[in-house]
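User: Sequence in, structure out. Go.
Assistant: Echoing your sequence, followed by the structure tokens.
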Amino acid sequence: MSRAIKHLLVGGLIIMTMGISTAATANDLKLAIVNPPNLYDPSPNGYSTAVIVPSGARVAYISGQGGQDGTGALSPDFAVQVKQAYANLRTALDALGAKPDQVAKLAVFVVDHDMSKLGVLTENVKEMFGEALPAQTLIPVPKLAIDPMLFEVEAVVVLD
């Protein structure tokens, strides 16, 4: 596998830094989850309607994490790829010194999406995020960066 493809598969982290007041506390930087009562409650499906990022927070953007293991290998099984992609996202969060409850937004990309895949997606997102469900968009796609990829997740993270 070429170095360029390995780099593409591993993904990168882009961090955009904004000034943080030295008087800010951890509570000042906590995300506020909003699920208005007059809208459908999305939390059983593993996401929130909206998340408010506090003023003055540093924000990190984690590029799409696929289901590749540490060697770049991909299982042909959708559920295995999803589980590995979330493990890879956790590794990226750890590298930033962040926890799952600091993720404000996810975008997930699913090859040939159908309703049978929602259970796998919901189970994995709830396992990782518990009650602190980020805002999330699922985007069905015909294919991803390489043909064996079936799933990819990217995240917007608020750093302390």
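User: And one key feature?
Assistant: Strands lie at 13-16, 32-34, 50-52, 58-66, 103-111, 135-141, 151-159.
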